[in-house]
């Protein structure tokens, strides 16, 4: 099953951090005006750090005004491209656009079936398939016959992991209409019943929220909503191809699918915002690489209610603030550890007691809060937000799953700071909409301390997220030690949190001093300068 979190296997070191390029194949038609089709696919795929290979299904003659011809290649020509690429450049993800004939649909479907089955049997990674069902060009011209669409529903859809139709294409494939203002659940249900792993219905031609373009993703179990301001532009040639290829390129580099959806939507928004007229008709989407301005990123939510509630949450009062740079941030499980850290000059720290039945929980939190006050430190309580409020802690740290159950308004009313865990751009935006005091970005490296359902994010993604939210206090966590901490700080992140680097250190106090120095902790830096001065 395609979940919002999976990319079907190990991480690919793409996106600038490693040498391995994720290979994405684009199967589709050539657009000689280069606004859409294979030409747009390649620009999106390569511009986002993956390597694009192409399999041409048809040579179209088109410009910004009309499609004058669609000339399908023969099945032999199509087959020869698939075979030669597979022998040498196997794909991580296959993005499919225009399949021009019934025979092409049947051939590609059978080929995908065999590829998937053989990969599974031989223990190789099974390539994922993204299908953007090209039926009507942005000029309004039909690109394929009805019989081709019938063949798609019958033969191709069972091999598709992500389908990215617009409202018209979704209606054509599902055989039922979508209505403005009504959620497309029945259409999605029908498409899932036809065998696709998950569906992203794009909101470009379909209105769910006034003035906003709302894209809706579902795999039947969970949903993701992405909303962006509807842009008033006549220039959107290649919108569908660019979005689907951007998703494929990002997904192929090991990002969770939900994160690929967010970044690709940002990619499209910035490309549409910058698109200009070239011919007499719709100008092409601009290809500008990774979005670096958060204004281009969508508002997100796991339900429509959450998305629209964020309208009210975005504008009003944020949670009580904390400094952009929090210094070294140890996370420990006992008051004894807190006392040791405070004595060593640590100013930001967390009590993380994971056993909810712990008999002396209240006493431990009360003692921790008292110590925090005594040392004028920023003490966060993990999970136990009611006790944190009651006992007057400086702040609370919550995970994503707590956001549904904790009384965030009560935490805010009580004046406590709030930190929220995130594990990718989707969770980061979702949490940022609540305007917390800080956001934690994890896990950066593999960690032994906690079983993580997500993959390590690495330094490239950390830097990417820091660049997108320059004004929010951000804390990196997960697998950070004295060797890696400087590289973490070099991404521009405000602070880093550690567990085992301190609790498993041979001499905790010298490790604390080392880490405090790397974190730019003012007390530690002053102390180092004093010692250095004394030595002069
Ligand atoms: C600074 C910081 N970042 C992340 C976490 C993880 O919190 P959470 O997701 O709530 O998971 P648990 O710690 O409760 O297992 C954290 N505690 N601190
Ligand atoms: C508690 C925790 N939360 C994480 C997250 O990513 O949300 S990583 C993590 C464990 C961090 O421990 P260490 O420094 O020993 O790797
Ligand atoms: Mg927690």
Q: Topology of this protein?
A:
Blueprint: E1 23-31, H1 37-47, E2 51-62, E3 67-72, H2 75-88, E4 93-96, H3 102-121, E5 128-131, H4 146-156, E6 162-163, H5 167-174, H6 185-193, E7 198-201, E8 212-218, E9 223-229, H7 239-252, H8 257-273, E10 299-301, H9 304-314, E11 328-332, H10 335-343, E12 348-351, H11 361-374, E13 378-382, H12 385-391, E14 395-398, H13 408-413, E15 417-422, H14 425-432, E16 438-441, H15 458-468, E17 474-477, H16 485-490, E18 495-498, H17 500-503, H18 508-518, H19 522-535
Parallel strand pairs: 1-2, 1-4, 4-5, 5-6, 6-7, 11-12, 11-18, 12-13, 13-14, 14-15, 15-16, 16-17, 17-18
Antiparallel strand pairs: 2-3, 7-8, 8-9, 9-10
Helix pairs in contact: 1-7, 3-4, 5-6, 7-8, 10-11
This protein binds the ligand Cc1ncc(COP(=O)(O)OP(=O)(O)O)c(N)n1, the ligand Cc1nc(C(=O)O)sc1CCOP(=O)(O)O and magnesium ion.
Function: Condenses 4-methyl-5-(beta-hydroxyethyl)thiazole monophosphate (THZ-P) and 2-methyl-4-amino-5-hydroxymethyl pyrimidine pyrophosphate (HMP-PP) to form thiamine monophosphate (TMP).
Binding site for Mg(2+): 383, 402
Domain Pyridoxamine kinase/Phosphomethylpyrimidine kinase: 31-285
Describe this structure in words.
- By secondary structure, the protein is an alpha/beta fold.
- It is built from 19 helices and 18 strands.
- It has helices at 37-47, 75-88, 102-121, 146-156, 167-174, 185-193, 239-252, 257-273, 304-314, 335-343, 361-374, 385-391, 408-413, 425-432, 458-468, 485-490, 500-503, 508-518, 522-535, and strands spanning 23-31, 51-62, 67-72, 93-96, 128-131, 162-163, 198-201, 212-218, 223-229, 299-301, 328-332, 348-351, 378-382, 395-398, 417-422, 438-441, 474-477, 495-498.
- It has a 10-stranded mixed β-sheet, with helices on both faces.
- Helix 5 (167-174) crosses helix 6 (185-193).
- The protein is elongated and about 80 Å long.
- The N and C termini lie far apart (64 Å).
- Bound molecules: the ligand Cc1ncc(COP(=O)(O)OP(=O)(O)O)c(N)n1, ligand 3NM and magnesium ion.
- Residues 421, 423, 442-443, 447, 449-450, 477-480, 498-501 line the site of the ligand Cc1nc(C(=O)O)sc1CCOP(=O)(O)O.
- Belongs to the thiamine-phosphate synthase family.
- GO terms for molecular function: thiamine-phosphate diphosphorylase activity.
- Mg(2+) binds at residues 383, 402.
- Condenses 4-methyl-5-(beta-hydroxyethyl)thiazole monophosphate (THZ-P) and 2-methyl-4-amino-5-hydroxymethyl pyrimidine pyrophosphate (HMP-PP) to form thiamine monophosphate (TMP).
- It comes from Corallincola luteus.
């Amino acid at each position: 099953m395609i979940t919002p979190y999976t990319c079907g296997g190990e991480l690919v070191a793409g996106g600038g951090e490693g040498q391995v390029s994720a290979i994405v194949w684009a199967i589709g038609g050539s657009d000689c005006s280069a606004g859409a089709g294979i030409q747009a696919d390649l620009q999106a795929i390569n511009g986002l750090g993956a390597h694009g290979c192409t399999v041409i299904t048809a040579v179209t003659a088109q410009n910004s005004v009309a499609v004058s011809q669609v000339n399908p290649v023969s099945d032999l020509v199509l087959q020869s491209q698939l075979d030669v690429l597979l022998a040498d450049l196997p794909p991580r993800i296959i993005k499919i656009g225009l399949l021009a004939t019934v025979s092409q649909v049947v051939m590609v479907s059978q080929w995908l079936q065999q590829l998937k089955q053989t990969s599974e049997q031989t223990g190789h990674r099974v390539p994922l398939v993204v299908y953007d069902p090209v039926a009507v060009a942005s000029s309004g011209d039909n690109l394929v016959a009805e019989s081709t669409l019938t063949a798609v529903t019958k033969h191709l859809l069972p091999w598709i992991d992500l389908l990215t139709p617009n409202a018209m294409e979704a209606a054509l494939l599902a055989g039922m209409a979508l209505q403005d203002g009504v959620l497309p659940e029945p259409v999605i249900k029908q498409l899932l019943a036809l065998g696709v792993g998950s569906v992203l219905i794009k909101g470009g031609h379909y209105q769910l929220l006034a003035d906003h373009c709302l894209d809706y993703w579902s795999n039947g179990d969970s949903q993701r909503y992405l909303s962006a301001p509807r842009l008033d532009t006549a220039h959107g040639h290649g919108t569908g191809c660019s979005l689907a290829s951007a998703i494929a390129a990002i997904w192929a580099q090991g990002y969770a699918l939900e994160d690929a959806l967010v970044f690709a939507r940002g990619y499209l928004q910035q490309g549409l915002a910058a698109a200009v007229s070239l011919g007499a008709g719709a100008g092409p989407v601009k290809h500008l690489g990774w979005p670096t301005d958060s204004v281009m990123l969508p508002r997100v939510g796991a339900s429509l209610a959450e998305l629209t509630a964020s309208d009210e949450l975005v504008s009003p009062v944020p949670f009580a603030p904390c400094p952009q740079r929090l210094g070294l941030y140890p996370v420990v499980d006992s008051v004894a550890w807190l006392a040791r850290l405070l004595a060593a000059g640590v100013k930001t720290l967390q009590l993380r007691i994971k056993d909810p039945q712990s008999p002396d929980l209240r006493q431990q939190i009360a003692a921790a809060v008292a110590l925090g006050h005594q040392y004028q430190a920023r003490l966060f309580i993990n999970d136990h937000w009611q006790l944190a409020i009651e006992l007057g802690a400086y702040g609370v740290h919550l995970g994503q799953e707590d956001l549904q159950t904790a009384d965030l308004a009560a935490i805010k009313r009580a004046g406590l700071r709030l930190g929220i865990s995130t594990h990718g751009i989707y969770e980061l935006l979702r949490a940022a909409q609540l305007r917390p005091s800080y956001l934690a970005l994890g896990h950066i490296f593999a960690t032994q301390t906690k079983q993580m359902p997500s993959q390590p994010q690495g330094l490239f993604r950390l830097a990417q997220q820091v660049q997108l939210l320059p004004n929010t206090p951000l804390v990196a966590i997960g697998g950070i030690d004295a060797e890696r901490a400087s590289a973490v700080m070099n991404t521009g992140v405000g602070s880093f949190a550690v567990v085992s680097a301190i609790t498993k250190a041979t001499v905790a106090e010298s490790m604390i001093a080392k880490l405090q120095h790397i974190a730019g902790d003012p007390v530690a830096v002053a102390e180092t300068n004093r010692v250095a001065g004394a030595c002069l």
